[in-house]
Specification:
With 116 residues, the protein is mainly beta. 9% of the residues lie in helices and 28% in strands. Bound molecules: zinc ion.
């Protein structure tokens, strides 16, 4: 994690080639507001209003108000699907369907469902 002040972020923005409009920039104490930049959670960030998860490389958090949540930074990345092991029985978490029952041995072949 790295913590930058708004003043440092403004310098970084200029360094990155952005043009800042001084009419709308923070001033005074607002320049000292600190923002944490940290690696995003592997499962992404949950937007509690929409229920949507967004995964990015990094997120920004107001250092003094972490309870306010995080701002995903940059382009969205795909979230890896949750992989769960299936078990070879009708009790599997996915509720498998019976595909075939061997009439001699009674062995059952299940067709498992993918997680949604
Ligand atoms: Zn299964």
């Amino acid at each position: 994690m790295i913590t930058l002040t708004v003043a440092e972020i403004m310098d970084l923005a200029v360094f990155a080639g952005l043009t800042l409009n001084s009419r709308f920039n923070p001033t005074g104490d607002d320049l000292e507001t600190e923002i944490d930049i940290q690696a995003a959670h592997p499962d992404g960030a949950l937007d509690e209003d929409t229920g949507k998860r967004t995964k990015t490389r990094f997120v920004a958090v107001m250092t003094d108000y972490p309870e306010e949540g995080c701002m995903p930074l940059g382009p969205e990345l795909p979230i890896a699907p949750v992989t769960r092991e299936h078990e070879a029985s009708a009790a599997c978490w996915c509720g498998p369907e019976i595909d075939y029952v061997d009439p001699d041995t009674g062995a059952t072949v299940y067709v498992h469902k993918q997680a949604q």
